[in-house]
From TrEMBL:
Native source organism of the sequence: Lates calcarifer (Barramundi)
GO MF annotation list: GTP binding
Name the record gives this protein: Interferon-induced protein 44
CDD domains: Ras_like_GTPase
InterPro entries in alphabetical order: GTP-bd (IPR006073), P-loop_NTPase (IPR027417)
Ranges annotated as biased composition (Low complexity): 17-27
Annotated stretches, region: Disordered: 13-33
Length: 296
């Protein structure tokens, strides 16, 4: 099973999540703490400004490249559009919803077009562009075609191109960019997975798509009680660590390329802890994507 097939598979499941224990048919075990005493990954809580300035100061230094393009993909309802909105809100200093969002329980992709999202700043736009695509769905003629993801990655898909679950975009069709520039290409893939996804058991090898990939684990507050009670528990949580280890061993992402985040959903105002997690992930997305740009 390839990575994209696997993501479609977990997107079609509807298992209930747990807060740190796995159901078992055997006798009940004594309760254990759902958290580690010491964090298993360090993060600078309370230092949001440093992460914010890192993103604000970023500028590609490669001739012919004016921005870093991030392509998001993953199962329906995993939080791709919500992540774009959350990043935009943090960088603009207020709630923003540039990307339309579907319900997390939806089985059908709300995004049907290849959508480009730029983030405004006082002097124009940030040199960080996000592209959202149709979600991966299980079953024939459902969700985005694997070939369309590859075409988008190489810059062959024009903005606002409508995706067809029945067939990929073909050379010569309207919406096909025959001669993509370095700016049209995607510089990093961002795989978005919900922490509510079923336990990962298969041995899955990720496809080598030729550009760096990072994974963000969303809905961590819904999947883990200790994280819901206090977001700062995320790197103390045994459940979150286990989900990340499952992703690492089964899908092929190194642990240092997986970042748990909480997207903005019910909140009306910005929250420093939510911002800190997202900005931490964004720093590495920029670093890995910029490394690729330098090698182009």
């Amino acid at each position: 099973m390839g990575l994209l097939d696997f993501l479609r598979h977990i997107g079609s499941q509807n298992e209930e999540s747990s807060s740190g224990t796995t159901p078992s048919s055997g006798p009940a075990l004594p309760p254990t703490s759902p958290i580690f005493t010491e964090p298993w990954r360090e993060i600078s809580w309370g230092d949001k400004q440093t992460g914010l300035e890192y993103v604000q100061d970023y500028q590609p230094k490669k001739e012919g490249v004016s921005h870093l393009r991030v392509l998001l993909y993953g199962p329906v309802g995993s939080g791709k559009s919500s992540f774009i909105n959350s990043v935009s809100s943090i960088l603009r200093g207020r709630m923003a919803i540039p990307a339309a969002v579907s319900a997390a329980t939806s089985e059908i992709s709300f995004t049907t077009k290849y959508e480009t999202h730029e983030i405004e700043r006082e002097d124009g736009f940030y040199p960080l562009v996000f592209n959202d695509i149709m979600g991966l769905e299980d079953g024939p003629n459902r969700g985005v075609q694997t070939e369309d993801i590859k075409l988008a990655m190489m810059g062959h898909v024009m903005d606002s191109q409508q995706f067809s679950p029945a067939s990929p975009l073909l050379n010569g069709c309207a919406g096909y960019n025959k001669n993509p520039s370095a700016n049209d290409r995607c510089h990093i893939l961002l795989c978005v997975i919900s922490a509510n996804a079923p336990e990962i058991k298969e041995s899955v090898l990720g496809t080598d798509l030729g550009i760096p990939q990072v994974c963000i684990l969303t809905h961590i507050d819904e999947a883990c009680d200790v994280t819901e009670s206090n977001l700062k528990n995320v790197y103390h949580s045994k459940y979150i660590k286990r989900k990340m280890e499952e992703m690492s061993s089964s899908v092929g992402f190194p642990m240092n390329c997986i970042f748990p985040v909480k997207n903005y959903n019910e909140e009306k105002d910005l929250d420093d802890d939510i911002d800190t997690l997202i900005l931490d992930a964004l720093r590495y997305i920029i670093n890995f994507g910029d490394d690729f740009i330098k090698k182009m």
